[in-house]
Design a protein that fits this description.
single chain; Uridine Diphospho-n-acetylenolpyruvylglucosamine Reductase, domain 2; Uridine Diphospho-n-acetylenolpyruvylglucosamine Reductase, domain 3; Vanillyl-alcohol Oxidase, Chain A, domain 3; 16 helices; 21 strands; about 30% helix; binds flavin-adenine dinucleotide
Length: about 475
Amino acid sequence: MVDIIKLDGKPVSLDSAAIAALRDKIRGGLILIGDPGYDAARRVWNGNIDRRPALIARCTGPGDVQHAVSFASSHGLLLSVRGGGHSAPGYGTNDGGMVIDLSPMKTINVDPVRRTARTEPGVLWREFDEATQAHGLVTTGGTVTNTGVIGLTLGGGLGWLMGKHGASVDNVISIDVVTADGQLRHASAAEHPDLFWGLLGGGGNFGVVTSMTFRVHPVGQIIGGLVLHPLDRAADMLKFYRGFCATLPDEAEAHAALLTSPDGVPVAAMLLGYNGPIEEGERVLAPARQWGQPLADMVGPMPYGARQAMLDAPNAEHGLHRYWRAAFTEQFTDGFIDMLVEAAGRFSSPMSSLLLFYVHGAITRVPAGATAFGARNTQWDFDVIGQWADGAESSQHIAWVREVWARLEPHLKGSVYVNHIAADDKPEKVRASYGENHARLRAIKAMYDPGNQFRVNSNVAPA
Ligand SMILES: Cc1cc2nc3c(=O)[nH]c(=O)nc-3n(C[C@H](O)[C@H](O)[C@H](O)COP(=O)(O)OP(=O)(O)OC[C@H]3O[C@@H](n4cnc5c(N)ncnc54)[C@H](O)[C@@H]3O)c2cc1C
């Protein structure tokens, strides 16, 4: 017998014969508490998430996924789906339920003639970029290289190429997905168009995606890098930065952060990028590099893959602890800037940061109703990020985030990028983050997952 938690939260025991039958079907293996490898298999990227699922189904293909979903549905099990394992609130795992672990599914097929790339759900951005860059191609991907390609895209997909090529979802051509009834469906603009629309920003609400096909674009050398200023110049730098963003063409990206330098000193940074001819990029980014007297200017030409890895330290480190809060904002005042600088002056951890991630260009020209990802305004995704290495210190770093957030939140919108929703954000904020698309998402959820089998996510309740 195996003790397990059902969808309604009730504990039950599953008989050994049912478990043995499932074990026979899952080619990638079924891992139970006490099995060798269980402890490594239950871990996710965020070390602050310490959960113990009863069953981990390691899936090697759509067939394994179908068996796992059918088993979870027929037994009414609490179910999590894990791709890259990077969900900060730990949606890729749970206590006492089943985890569908897609990490063994690593196939990537690039068609350089049609400029498409099909990926399976265990693929991380660094692996995807390596495969497509072999042909000089890429699509909009995340800014830390070990997030999951499909997990990130399901929420929308913000990255360095969004000004030029839109969000990750804007580049998806088709999707294979196992829905709650165990069926493998092919979704595109022509087939199951409602399901396709919902998957483009509706998070993991509609099933387990077993492959996605993207449009990919030629990208070679780019310009990228950070410009650092001392914290006592941060307020002026952020005021300059606010105006600089309004001048940017689609090819350019500019984000800003308050963080701690490798020497252990809080600093202000502009994170700059240009996806186009190098000389043109030098000209567009020059005002930001010439402003003030930087402590360091690390901006220069580099391969696309190097820019993608620029923020990996420390963010990609497996087991790092993270707690964060986020919201969108279309403007920020001098008073808001002062609050940021004050908060950075008392970072509780040198790995924590305050981030203004600028969303503009092609991503904002897609109508809000065209995909489930509807955050199409020119705006900043603002994040208060608490990160630390020692689990014994969690309460002090979480307290810093909460205290800073309590003062900043009234100055921000009540919506957030869906992939940045925190587990303790209120249900109203989840609804607001789906915006006007929420009602259609609920209707599609009722069609494909009426029992809300896929609920360990930024959840959309069936209509
Ligand atoms: C350090 C860090 C950096 C980040 N940077 C960016 C960034 O630059 N841009 C950006 O847009 N986002 C970014 N994110 C957010 C990121 O997009 C989300 O955390 C995303 O959910 C990660 O996907 P994953 O597959 O790695 O995570 P997982 O934990 O494996 O999955 C998260 C959730 O996504 C769903 N899911 C994943 N795969 C599937 C699948 N195949 N089928 C169905 N549902 C699935 C499930 O609901 C799952 O619980 C970042 C997050 C972190 C922690």
